[in-house]
Amino acid sequence: MKPLKLDEVWRILPPLDELRPVLDLLATRSAPDPDRTWTGSGELDTMGDRVVPAAEVSASGGALAARVERHLAAVYGGMGRALEALARGDGATASEALLEVAALEEAASRHDRSEAYARSAYLASRDLRNQRPAALALRRWGRALRRQGKLNDALARYREGFETARDAGDARGAAEGAVGAGNVLEEQGRWADAEAWYHRALDLLDSGKLGAVPERWHALV
């Protein structure tokens, strides 16, 4: 039996969401080709040249399916909590539950789904008197967009999240939005604009007398 390489798997298997756990397993368990380890060209092998243990997919199928089932159960549980909160007229709790689902999808690198749930969280909270939940949803929406490379849209959401948090008196949330905007601008090569947003974050943290919070060293870095 010839060694099966990651490149072959990536080329043949369709990029379907339900196959992502299989592809992740193969990538994690892959190893350098033992027949090439001591060759000069073997030192230059890429990730796609690594050999995958194809038999482990069959052996791990039950565990992979159980992991997917747990993930879906958590997603549906969060959706249930969100809908119950909406039925009570509690948009803040609904938004919180939807952001928990967005975080689950983000952890699974499903950033398009994380974006969708963050947007729903914003819609659930945008008309509340307390705008802090809406500001948080905007920031998470921006982060999901940035992870997908949708930089202009991400920048718009971060700016809106910054303004909403600032107007709601949430200095730390506004600083997080400013750092997010700066990060996007940095990725776009707009260094001076990025620096201005990092300074906004630091000014907010100083005015709010917030000490060694993560947003401070994010801005300083």
Topology summary:
Elements: H1 6-12, H2 20-29, H3 55-87, H4 91-107, H5 111-125, H6 132-147, H7 151-167, H8 171-187, H9 191-207, H10 214-220
Describe this structure in words.
There is one protein chain. The longest helix is centred in the first third of the chain and has 33 residues, at 55-87. This protein has 221 residues and is mainly alpha-helical. It has helices at 6-12, 20-29, 55-87, 91-107, 111-125, 132-147, 151-167, 171-187, 191-207, 214-220. The model is unreliable at 38-44 (pLDDT under 50). Helix 6 (132-147) runs parallel beside helix 8 and helix 8 (171-187) packs antiparallel against helix 9. The protein is globular and about 65 Å long. The protein has ten helices and no strands.
